[in-house]
């Protein structure tokens, strides 16, 4: 029956059926063929989204959209330029730095890519940067958006794995910074090879001026993460605080959004949220079905029969995560893979928080690996470049992110910190 379920799932995917409907329909047909009462489907769908932690998802999406549409992203880019622009190929480093700053606000890879790209692309072209390489770097920097907290995928993983959102957020900071350092190193290498110009001269006065201008945006992660880690409010409450703060900054400080703009952003965020929640609901039925059929345990035993070496098994796990990210978008892949792979890594003694960072990072890399590469599509839209050109230029950044992922996978294991 498991074979029937996956055959139907991939058949629906090949036919172009939306991911949520493909998951739901294939599971529904498989359960019906087994004679399971279909009332179970609605029960499990409701159970899958009946979590207080998921309240944070629509709120962080809305906060990110509000910040992305206003002047916040442009001011963050200006501040990053004042810090890194003096370097050779400084605008490349600004792309990464601005991506990291905005990642600490949005919780979304696509929002990070769009916000940084729309602000930087005209200047990159004017300074003579290779357009495809610049667009691919911006798309790669967008992957940091779901690793540095706040992170919507981390919230989803926390709900599925019954782990602490706060602990995941705390442990996502260093891996996100490492991703930024890795991308920046590659960008600097390319800048010297292509003889890119230096940007804004280093000036204390400029840094102070741009910092003051960007301070309202920079305060967002301080308020969100400071409130969470100090225990003032929960991650779900922090998301609501983030929305109110974003409205305050956009409507009354920068005054860059009208009420009509806010209404339009609310509609778009609601649509995005509804898609994610439908995926979570249908995937909950799939997870329950696989668990009731004892599929995760069978997979764990099959993998452990190949090798008992944790290094080898974790390499296989990473390969599965990366391959899944190529074909399935992040939220869906996360919901499908977590119940299957978590029992396996727990048997290896891997801490579930550590695994949460691994799976979120691995699926974030999937945002720049076609055919399901949302960051590349956003970068293509912002730069008006063909997707094929950006895809060819993404390879060095893709390899750099995979290297950082392997460092995050094996570093804690080697240090004995993973269990």
Please give a structural write-up.
It is globular and about 70 Å long. The protein has about 425 residues and is an all-alpha fold. The longest helix has about 35 residues, at about 260-290. It starts with a helix and ends in a 5-residue tail after the last helix. The chain has helices at about 1-15, 20-35, 40-50, 55-70, 70-85, 90-105, 110-125, 130-140, 150-160, 165-195, 205-230, 235-255, 260-290, 295-305, 310-325, 330-345, 350-365, 375-385, 385-395, 395-415.
End-to-end separation in angstroms reads 35 Å
Poorly predicted regions are: none
Briefly note the structural class of the backbone. mainly alpha
| Secondary-structure element pattern, one letter each | HHHHHHHHHHHHHHHHHHHH
- Average pLDDT, rounded to a whole number, is 83
Please tag this protein with its features:
419 residues, globular
Topology at a glance:
Elements: H1 2-14, H2 19-34, H3 39-49, H4 56-69, H5 72-84, H6 90-106, H7 109-126, H8 131-142, H9 152-161, H10 165-194, H11 204-229, H12 235-253, H13 259-292, H14 295-306, H15 310-327, H16 330-347, H17 352-365, H18 374-383, H19 387-393, H20 395-414
């Amino acid at each position: 029956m498991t074979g029937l379920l996956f055959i139907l799932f991939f058949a629906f995917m090949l036919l172009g059926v939306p991911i949520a409907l493909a998951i739901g329909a294939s599971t529904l047909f498989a359960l019906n063929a087994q004679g399971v009462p279909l009332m179970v489907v609605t029960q499990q769908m409701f159970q899958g989204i009946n979590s207080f932690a998921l309240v944070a998802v629509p709120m962080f999406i809305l906060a990110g959209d509000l910040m992305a549409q206003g002047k916040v992203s442009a001011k963050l880019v200006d501040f990053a330029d004042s810090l890194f622009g003096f370097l050779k190929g400084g605008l490349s480093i600004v792309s990464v730095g601005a991506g990291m700053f905005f990642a600490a606000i949005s919780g979304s890879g696509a929002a990070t890519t769009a916000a940084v790209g729309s602000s930087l692309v005209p200047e990159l072209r004017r300074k003579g940067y290779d357009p495809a390489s610049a667009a691919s770097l911006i798309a790669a920097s967008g992957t940091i958006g779901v690793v540095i907290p706040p992170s919507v995928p981390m919230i989803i993983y926390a709900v599925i794995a019954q782990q602490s959102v706060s602990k995941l957020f705390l442990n996502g900071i260093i891996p996100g910074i490492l991703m930024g350092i890795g991308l920046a190193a590659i960008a600097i290498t390319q800048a010297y090879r292509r003889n890119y110009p230096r940007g804004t001269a280093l000036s204390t006065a400029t840094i102070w001026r741009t910092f003051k201008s960007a301070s309202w945006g920079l305060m967002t992660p301080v308020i969100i993460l400071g409130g969470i880690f100090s225990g003032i409010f929960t991650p779900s409450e922090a998301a609501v605080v983030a929305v109110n703060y974003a409205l305050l900054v956009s409507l009354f400080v920068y005054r860059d959004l009208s009420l009509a703009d806010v209404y339009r952003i609310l509609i778009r965020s609601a649509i995005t949220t509804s898609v994610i929640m439908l995926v979570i609901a249908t995937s909950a039925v799939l997870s329950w079905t696989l668990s009731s059929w004892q599929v995760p345990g069978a997979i764990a035993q099959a993998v452990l029969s190949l090798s008992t070496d944790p290094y080898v098994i974790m390499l296989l796990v990473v390969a599965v995560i990366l391959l899944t990210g190529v074909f399935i978008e992040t939220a869906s892949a996360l919901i499908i893979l977590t119940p299957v792979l978590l029992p396996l890594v727990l048997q290896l003694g891997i801490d579930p928080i550590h695994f949460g960072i691994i799976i979120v990072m691995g699926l974030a890399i999937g945002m720049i690996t076609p055919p399901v590469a949302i960051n590349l599509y956003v970068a293509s839209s912002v730069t008006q470049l063909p997707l094929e050109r950006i895809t060819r230029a993404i390879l060095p950044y893709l390899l750099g992110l995979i290297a950082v992922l392997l460092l995050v996978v094996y570093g804690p294991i080697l240090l004995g910190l993973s269990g």
